[in-house]
Amino acid sequence: MAVTIKDVAKKANVAPSTVSRVISDNPRISDATKKRVRKAMKELGYHPNVNARNLAIRSSQAIGVIMPSSAETSLQNPFFPEVLRGIGSMALETEYSLYVSTGGDETQSFEEVKRMVFGNRVDGIILLYSRRDDPIMNFLIKEEFPFVVVGKPYKKESQITYVDNDNILASKKITEHLISLGHKRIAYLGGTTDLVVTMDRLDGYKQALEAANIPINDKFIIHDEFLRSSGRKAVEKLFALNEPPTAIVVADDLMSLGVMNMLEELGIECPEDVSITSFNNLYLSELTRPSLTTVDIQIYNLGIQSAKALIERLKSKTEPVKRVIVPFEIKYRNSTKKIDQ
Amino acid sequence: MAVTIKDVAKKANVAPSTVSRVISDNPRISDATKKRVRKAMKELGYHPNVNARNLAIRSSQAIGVIMPSSAETSLQNPFFPEVLRGIGSMALETEYSLYVSTGGDETQSFEEVKRMVFGNRVDGIILLYSRRDDPIMNFLIKEEFPFVVVGKPYKKESQITYVDNDNILASKKITEHLISLGHKRIAYLGGTTDLVVTMDRLDGYKQALEAANIPINDKFIIHDEFLRSSGRKAVEKLFALNEPPTAIVVADDLMSLGVMNMLEELGIECPEDVSITSFNNLYLSELTRPSLTTVDIQIYNLGIQSAKALIERLKSKTEPVKRVIVPFEIKYRNSTKKIDQ
């Protein structure tokens, strides 16, 4: 039988409500009584039920982390373990636990978020994505529940704290690198169009082309999930065109891996026949042959900064809203080549 | 202001305790009353506090997942996201949430586990490792708290449900493969010696050598963390020997990656100068040059099976204790070569 508050109360010769007050460290209880009650708790091996205590102090000491799709799908992309690693490191330092979403579709994730919020299961939430018209983000705003976004909120809501890279600039720079190598037929392979990061990187790509007076070809723009299989499919599509591209700006390393696999199967050589640039600088981007020229977005640091911003807000309600822009760096490797004139 | 049980009680014209009973679906409340209270809850936008409800029904609908070291360190090895992916998929299907440990050292993890258990934060726990004399495992046994181990418990406790591969056999088979290629100077690079998986794989390696009458050389056996950096350090040590090995049985793909990097830096060629076999079949094992001959331990499936076993146990206290052995398969690739006589 589990030891209850009543058992402790009996042993310490106080009312059960006094035991509860000792557990929540109520200042109205004398130190002598606290000492007696705690001694009784220890002797009986009683551990205060944290749920009960949470009701009193209203803190779960946990952070909810919401992934853009099911854990099963998201965790295929090393971006998510790496950002979790950063969040976990900050959570450890500040003694927070992590509550990770498993939800498959938007409805399931939304239900999970509601359970987290209304159930006081977490003190705050980190959204690991930013989507257009996201019902989850709208809900968190309406409930005034503390949250931080990894990525840039779609509406430029001034009251949302977020941590992001300057994805427009990064994409512009890496596209300019391809243009400087003589490429004109440059394709763009991005994530799904509801993700702000996809649209930002598309923006930067278009800005670079426009600045160089290269017309934008809609057939060269493909959107799909940030998965290896999407890279394979895109290559099939692009190289079935009468005039295929000579370079591809890929918005994700895992996609690039699929792109390179499929190119190899089709006998198209990289970088001899087609140059590839990528995003994220996952460790796999050094392992591919050729190694990938990619944008290092500092994923681990994105995790650290997002957890830091959330915890600062949890500790102080008056903490100002922040926009944290983590710097990027292009890693020049071997997947691009000057075009033969 | 948040809507409280008292507001609902007032609106529905019942006692607050009746509202609580409706929330916990107490059969002693009439259907008519339930209907009236639920209508009032809906109209007022009241969401029952899940903590309060948990106190009643004693279920958190969450699973605790404990990693062997801090999230920061563990998540560097793709084994953990992959096993989490399997657990997440089963959790989603059965509507459980995941509570992931962040703890750095054993003391921190133990504190987290105690918070999970005494706080009713989780219904059951999955340990993603098996260690000799693990205080956490001993604690869970003592508390009779439902848990499942990914790996083989050290003491052959008959009451522990676990999911594992036959690591002794897998290691014996892959060492025999090297022996069949003519290798005699075969080194073993494993994880830390407190991990059961390390000792099992060492056992299989020794069994294969003994069966082939090859003496065991202690200088050829190295233990370190399952990290890339450990692979690098081990190569430095092994190739400083007067008679370095011609083959290495590495117990982890990420370690193998470090091994290959360092070999390349030292100008030692794989597989020409040294053959390497590995464990886990992470997707990176196909990307290395040469690609790695490695044991596919079906990590995702280990995750699925562990969550399945735990949830079966949570649903039925009389569920029998199980030992689930996930089959392995050796993937023969290009990192081994017949030795020149």
TrEMBL record, chains A, B:
<keyword id="KW-0238">DNA-binding</keyword>
<dbReference type="Pfam" id="PF00356">
    <property type="entry name" value="LacI"/>
</dbReference>
<keyword id="KW-0804">Transcription</keyword>
<dbReference type="GO" id="GO:0000976">
    <property type="term" value="F:transcription cis-regulatory region binding"/>
</dbReference>
<dbReference type="InterPro" id="IPR046335">
    <property type="entry name" value="LacI/GalR-like_sensor"/>
</dbReference>
<dbReference type="GO" id="GO:0003700">
    <property type="term" value="F:DNA-binding transcription factor activity"/>
</dbReference>
<keyword id="KW-0805">Transcription regulation</keyword>
<protein>
    <submittedName>
        <fullName>LacI family transcriptional regulator</fullName>
    </submittedName>
</protein>
<dbReference type="InterPro" id="IPR028082">
    <property type="entry name" value="Peripla_BP_I"/>
</dbReference>
<dbReference type="InterPro" id="IPR000843">
    <property type="entry name" value="HTH_LacI"/>
</dbReference>
<dbReference type="Pfam" id="PF13377">
    <property type="entry name" value="Peripla_BP_3"/>
</dbReference>
<dbReference type="InterPro" id="IPR010982">
    <property type="entry name" value="Lambda_DNA-bd_dom_sf"/>
</dbReference>
<feature type="domain" description="HTH lacI-type">
    <location>
        <begin position="3"/>
        <end position="57"/>
    </location>
</feature>
